[in-house]
TrEMBL record:
Keywords: Hydrolase, Metal-binding. It comes from Microbaculum marinisediminis. Pfam families: Amidohydro_3 (PF07969). NCBIfam families: PRK07572.1. PANTHER family: CYTOSINE DEAMINASE (PTHR32027). InterPro entries: Amidohydro_3, Metal-dep_hydrolase_composite, Metal_Hydrolase, Metallo-hydrolase_Enzymes. Residues 41-401 form the Amidohydrolase domain. This is Amidohydrolase family protein. GO terms for biological process: cytosine catabolic process. The keyword Metal-binding applies. One of its GO terms (molecular function) is isoguanine deaminase activity.
Amino acid sequence: MTFDLIVRNATLPDGRTGIDIACESGRIAAVEPSIAADAGRVIDANGHLVSPPFVDPHFHMDATLSLGIPRMNRSGTLLEGIALWGELKPLLTREAVKERALRYCDLAVSQGLLAIRTHVDVCDDRLLAVEALLEVKREVAPYIDLQLCAFPQDGYYRSPTAAENLERALDLGVDVVGGIPHFERTMADGARSVTALCEIAEKRGLLVDLHCDETDDPMSRHIETLAYETQRLGLHGRVNGSHLTSMHSMDNYYVSKLLALMAEARVSAIPNPLINIVIQGRHDTYPKRRGMTRVPELRAHGIEVAFGHDCVMDPWYSLGNADMLEVAAMGLHVAQMTSRDDMRWCFDRVTKGGAAVMHLDGYGLDVGCNADMVLLQAADPIEAIRLKATRLAVIRRGRVIAETPARVASLALPGRPATVDPASYAPKDASEDAG
């Protein structure tokens, strides 16, 4: 038998080693040791990690790569970023938004990031960013699963035409209902917006993803309303709360109630570690709050968690490289999740956690799944995070769409090795050898 592609001698995220993965007609046809078959192309993984592709369930593609237009965010603060977006928005053209988005997608592919949910601002009556990103979605479909979320960035009620524009965007084919309740003029308006947006999603049969309580204010509790509306409308498993940073400032007793409500309603959570810790806590002197929601507690309650990148080189964040391993690394540091099990779990937050939130079909490394995967220059998921591992090969539907040479340094040191492979520094558990 001949397959389209076989990846041989792979290590899988679940710890299996010496595994071959055979791909045929865009699907995974076999996952087992030593597949006795030929293929149009064979890749020797050489014991390195093969993972499902990376997933970013929270991004802002309409603003990405716009850093410096019309000027730099010199303070690096949220307030200057908001002001900059207000200056940039009138200058946007459909062509420019589309070109920056496509360029970002090129970068994403090189990093093995093959699924993205992007929030797109609908408060511009022209809806040019919506139209541009819908075109991008169609063009990148062969290599990236791109979801669009209708985001009334200036407030569903606060912006005069946001409600109408959100409906228009959904009519054009936007996939997800978004919102930003904590940005409304009052807490009451924020709660009303949650109700209205969830009712729209229920009526249209869509998913919900709200920027929720992205603040240090412990009284910003719109996630409670979101969990309630999920229950009331039967939206279980279809609703996500992004950021949830106010939870880091809430008292423990209230959070114990809140987490149970989220778990009951199957509301998922997307912390955005890189951005949350930069933007939050800015009014603090010392001690200074970390700015990220309560990730270990969310995990302990069985709540689906995925990590998002949020921004790359835009008015709010001057850094970023479409590297979800950087996101996972920051997440585990800030959440202080450094047990071996916790670190593997954090790797899953930028792979299968995001896939669950986005409701991606055919995701994974099981037989019958889409033949989408990434070969990483690392021994296992923890090492991948530690190294921000090189993506040796990125595969989409059984075809290699990006390759990067292994990172190996040459040395000129007397009596020392001629080369250094960072992946060779992976630790070994001496207690297992002793057993």
